[in-house]
Fold this protein.
Amino acid sequence: NSILSNLNVNLNKGQLTCLVGKNGIGKSTLLRSIAGVQPVLDGEILVNKMPLHTISHMDLAKLISLVLTDRIFAGNLTVEELVAFGRFPYTNWLGNLTHEDIEKINWAIEITGTEEIKSSSINEISDGQFQKALIARALAQDGDIMILDEPTGGHDPVQIREVRGLLRDFAD
């Protein structure tokens, strides 16, 4: 049962685009498919004019950063460590961070306003702070495309305003 067919969308760097619709119609499925996290149900997705299925996972991770709604439960991982995971596509097989990686991590933490919680366990921060940490990780990943699935879902009005402002500022 298709909601849309013959959909053709061009998304450009620096452009903030929102996908809006009722719950359960496939928005998250579409976003996950675009990011290469799950198979495309039908049709073809092109990233930089290249078919998605021809791009290696590592190269795709350098092009697209993804922020999902799922809460991560990873022991005592700190916010700073979570943000550092955004640099994984650029590190060697040991995961060693370069000076440039550390600069990107620090920049992402600063721009998202998460400096004061960077040493906190991700299990001890609020949902709003966690969302900002995930956005910081996506910024540190430094891809051309950032996909966020419900970045303000379940947040209070102040948190929603903060996240929207952050995304608007970054897109400009």
In short: The first strand starts at residue 46 and ends at 47.
